[in-house]
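Final report, Chapter 2: Outcomes

The project's central promise was a pipeline that accepts a single protein chain and returns its three-dimensional structure in a standardized token representation, suitable for archiving and comparison. That pipeline is now operational. To close this chapter, we reproduce one record exactly as it appears in the project archive, with the input sequence first and the structure output second.
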Amino acid sequence: MSIAEGSGNPERDTRQFDAIARGSALECAAILDAFEVLGLAAGQELVEPREPLEKTGSMLTKRALAEVNRGK
């Protein structure tokens, strides 16, 4: 949701929404880790739900690094 909200806003707002979305992806990944540690799900069961989180987190990290490299 945060990525979609930020897409139509000024650049500064977009960066903020991206940061929020990245944090949300990390929180979701942590929840999946907790499921595994608590024995609520096996490692193989968590591969599919982790993939989009990893892709989204990676994309948002790359966007943030690109902004830093551009000096913004």
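Archive annotation: Residues 34 and 71 are 37 Å apart (CA to CA).
This record, like all others produced under the grant, will remain available to the consortium after the project formally closes.
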